[in-house]
Amino acid sequence: EVQLVESGGGLVQAGGSLRLSCAGSGFTFDDYAIGWFRQAPGKEREGVACIGCSDANTYHADSVKGRFTISSDNAKNTVWLQMNSLKPEDTAVYYCAARPNWGPGSYTDSYYNWLEWGSWGQGTQVTVSS
């Protein structure tokens, strides 16, 4: 059974940084894509970043590009999301998700679509004050 546990959320002032962690178990990290998503109150779940989706590259949504960085240590079954230059609009519950990777030739738009992902963590709250 795939299990994902997020940690590292909290309250931070605008311009600050946080690092989220996602510890996974029950699957082989090398064969899986791991994604970070977020959901603010009243809004749809939004894809933020993906690693292992189809190749060795990482993918970041335009809204966080240059500020957030996804990385992983497959030997430790852990994925991180380093978040810098945080803005109040980054406030949300952040979730990590997992699924078998897409393989070559896949559409990158799929990586940010939460409906394409099957396993989810419980989420961690990130609040950015102005």
What would a concise description of this structure say?
With 130 residues, the chain is mostly beta strands.
Report the radius of gyration as a whole number of Å.
Answer: 14 Å
Q: Which range best describes the helical content: under 10%, 10-25%, 25-40%, 40-55%, 55-70% or over 70%?
A: under 10%
User: Structural class, from helix and strand content?
Assistant: mainly beta
Question: H/E element string?
Answer: EEEEEEEEEEE
Number of helices, where a helix is a run of at least 4 consecutive DSSP H or I residues:
0
Could you give the count of β-strands? Answer: 11
Mean pLDDT: 95
End-to-end distance: 40 Å
Largest sheet: number of strands, sense, barrel closure:
7 strands, mixed
Uncertain spans, ≥5 residues at pLDDT below 50?
none
Silhouette: globular
- Portion of residues in beta strands equals over 45%
Question: Could you walk me through the main structural features you see in this protein, from its secondary elements to its overall organization?
Answer:
This protein is mainly β. Helix content is 0%, strand content 48%. The protein contains no helices and eleven strands. The protein has strands at residues 3-7, 10-13, 18-25, 32-39, 46-51, 58-60, 68-73, 78-83, 92-100, 119-120, 124-129. Strands 2, 4, 5, 6, 9, 10 and 11 form a seven-stranded mixed beta sheet that branches. Strands 1-3-8-7 form a four-stranded antiparallel beta sheet, with no helix packed on it. Strand 5 and strand 6 (58-60) form a beta hairpin. The termini are far apart.
